[in-house]
Design a protein that fits this description.
Elements lengths: L3 E4 L5 H10 L2 H5 L5 H22 L4 E7 L2 E10 L3 E9 L8 H13 L5 E7 L4 H7 L3 E2 L7 E6 L12
Parallel strand pairs: 4-5
Antiparallel strand pairs: 1-2, 2-3, 3-4, 5-7, 6-7
Helix pairs in contact: 1-3
Length: about 160
Amino acid sequence: MDYRLRTATPGDDPWQLAIYASTRTDELALTGWPRAQCEAFVTQQHQAQQQHYRRHFPHALCQLILVDDAVAGRLWVDARPDRLHVLDITLLPDWRGQGLGTRCLRALMDEAAPSGRHLGIQVEIHNPARRLYERLGFLPEGEPQGLYQPMLRPAPAPQPEECLP
């Protein structure tokens, strides 16, 4: 499945909210709250997340993941000297389980490798996506931090240069 990334703009805020809301659906179903209360809560939480990312990771890039012209998800990446750090990768439900997340992460691995950078991510301890990260070579980085486990995919070891005759 081919995809492309496009830098998110303020006009993409409805997509950003929909993508975020898709991650909270199961949790909110357990509350018994009226729909309007769920929507207000998700909107507030989404805005808080956006503000947090912008305040603490001012150089991070937020991109929409597009398949053809359809929005499939979003990817927030903070490029650091020693690593590319994935702040968030989220696919809309219709795009999950099709290998798109794997392709996005492999592209980041390919981007990080030439400069010897690691690839980092924080994942909720019980998030099923953690299995994907482990399959791709991510390892726990230190102890869990509350509900989150920092994970790191180490940069590949530099290959020795071949001797030329």
